Structure formats: C-alpha cells, structure tokens
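Hi everyone,

Forwarding the result from last night's run.
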Amino acid sequence: MTKKKGFLFLSFIPVALIVVIILVTGYLLLADDLKFPIFDNKPKIRRLEGFPQNVYTDKQLEKMRIVIKNDEELNNFLNQIDSTGLLTLKEKINYEKEYLVAVTSPNRNIENHSIRIKKLYEDANDKKLIVSVHEIFPAEECQVISDPHISVDLVAVNKLDYQFDFEKVTDTIPCKR
C-alpha cells in the first residue's frame, strides 16, 4: 500500500509542473492583452509630443473641455481650432486602450498665456476622473504684447469606465525682465 501512494505522488509532480509552465508561458505571451482589475485600475496620464501649445488665430472660440474617443472626433476638434491643418497630432493613438482629453482656452490677447492639464484625480466612489486644468497668466503689472491666440493641451488617458469632470486653477507668473 505504501508503494502505491508514492507512485501517485511522483506522477502528480510532472503534471503540476507542466501546468505551471503552460500558465506562465501563456501569461508572458498575452501580458498586454490581459487586464487584471487589481493591477490596472488607476488612471494614467501620458503627455503628447507638441502639446501644450498656442495657436495664433483671429477666430473667436469659446473654451473647450472634451474627451476624444476616436479619430473623427480628434479631426473635428483640431479643425475647429486650426482650419489650415497645421495643428496635428504626431503620435498614433490606440482608442481601444486610451482616450484623449483636450482643453482649450478662449481667445486671449495676452503674451505668455498658456493652459496645461496638470493632474488627474480619481473619485472612485462616484466613478469620476477630475481633470485639473491650470491656466497661467502674466502678472497685471507686466507689459504684454497683444497677440490673439488659443492655448491648447492634449493628453492621453488610459481607458476607464469613469466620467470626466474638469476643474480650473488659475496661476500668475511674474514679469520677465
């Protein structure tokens, strides 16, 4: 009887080892496609090349805060700001994995004015992502050149089933000497 128990235990070890090797190999091959909610549930922000930037235009536009979910929405957004086609996104976006968050300022005639997405805050209870938008103005005593422009910023955010909300923070910078 002792002989049989030892034989069963010895035949189980290679089978368990083969199963572990198959699972580890499968995980390594499919690591990008597998999504484990434990590991990938935090919002991640990725800066895009060429943004933020100022687009010089006489076109009158209001501020925009939008989430872009496909190429058609991106093209509409870029054409709304710059109909000449000079404003482009240099990177290819995989919309199955991430969204674009876009913010613009209204027309400003102030030199050294800019807008930038600084942070994302997660409100897990309400399933919201709060986008912190920082708008920077020169101090009031600065002499500024009047040059009409729109400030634009675009960032990529990993795809989550959250609603987006925006908050604005206004900063002033001292005069350049």
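Helices lie at 2-29, 71-81.

Cheers,
N.
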